[in-house]
Amino acid sequence: MNYEIVIVGHGRYPDGVLSALQLLIGTTEGIKAFNLDEQTTHEKFEKQLTELLSEHERVLVFADMTGGAPHQIVSRLVLEGNRPHQYVIST
């Protein structure tokens, strides 16, 4: 009953959080970061998340900003997927 952990956000924020977690806990197995930056279109970002959400039944997604594009995209995908063990948490 392990959850896949996903960090989404603007710019390189998700990579920064993942880097800090590696320093603090040593391993980040089961934790993924998805950046929505100037090199990533909304369509590519959505495709990456769609693939991940379809591969894992249990997912916790942490978004950097409530109402921001990464939060909106992943929230819509989780709702549309109607998967009861996928959650989006945002600040």
TrEMBL record:
Q: Per the UniProt entry, what are the Gene Ontology biological process annotations, in alphabetical order?
A: phosphoenolpyruvate-dependent sugar phosphotransferase system
Question: In the Enzyme Commission scheme, what number(s) does this protein have?
Answer: 2.7.1.69
GO MF entries: transferase activity
Domain PTS EIIA type-4 per the UniProt entry, residue ranges? 2-91
Catalytic EC class: transferase
Q: Which PROSITE patterns match?
A: PTS_EIIA_TYPE_4
Q: Which Pfam families match?
A: EIIA-man
**GO CC field:** membrane
Q: Which UniProt keywords apply?
A: Transferase
Q: What's the name of the protein?
A: PTS system, hyaluronate-oligosaccharide-specific IIA component
- What is the protein's species of origin? Lacticaseibacillus paracasei subsp. paracasei Lpp122
